[in-house]
Structure formats: C-alpha cells, structure tokens
Amino acid sequence: MGLMLFNPRPKTTREELYDREYELESIKKFIEKKIGLIAIFGIRRLGKSSLVNVALNEIKYPSVKIDAAKIYSEFGEVPKEEVVQGDPPRIG
C-alpha cells in the first residue's frame, strides 16, 4: 500500500488547512458582522466544508451548518440565481 499524502476528510483546525488564510478570515468577518445567512458556493472537493468547520470552531458562536449536497441530489440542481439574489458582499 502506498503512502497517502492527502486525507480527503473535512478538516476542523487551522493547522490542517493549506494556504486558505484569506478565505478563512473572510468567512470569520462575515460571521462577526452577524450576517444572517452565509452561503459558500464552489465545485466539489475544494474545501468549502473544511473552511466552514474551521471558522465555526474558531469563532465559537452558535450556528447551524446545512449541507446542500443532499438537497441537490434529491431535487436536482438549483440555479445559483434562485438561491442568491444580487452580488454577494465582498470583504477585502
């Protein structure tokens, strides 16, 4: 059996992430500003769940995380325009 260099399970600590400081800090800023709903979009296997897990573990605010993959698999793909109206705010 070969050496596994990457573990595909979602990460839970900052030390497990690689080069995602900007994205992590952006998510944490949204949470601290008490924005009611934060949606993270992207193609599969980019680390969206890991970023949210780490941000929520560091912030320690009460939260609910919804995995929309189950919604997509049951009802088919939902166009982004149906979920997000307008441009999402940018933090920089």
- Main structural class: mainly alpha
Strand content: under 5%
Task: Please tell me the overall pLDDT.
Answer: 77
Tell me the total number of β-strands.
0
Instruction: Give helix % range.
Output: 25-40%
Main β-sheet, in a few words?
Answer: none
Low-pLDDT windows of residues: none
What distance lies between the first and last C-alpha atoms, to the nearest angstrom?
44 Å
The 3D shape can be described as globular
Reading the helices and strands in chain order gives: HHHH
Number of helices in the DSSP assignment: 4
Q: Radius of gyration over alpha carbons?
A: 15 Å
Q: How is this structure best summarized?
A:
By secondary structure, the protein is an all-alpha fold.
List descriptors.
mainly alpha; 92 residues; 4 helices; globular; single chain
General description of the model:
The protein has four helices and no strands. The model has no long low-confidence stretch (mean pLDDT 77). Helix 1 packs across helix 2. With 92 residues, the protein is mainly α. The relative contact order is 0.17.
Task: Set out the fold topology.
Layout lengths: L20 H12 L15 H12 L9 H7 L4 H4 L9
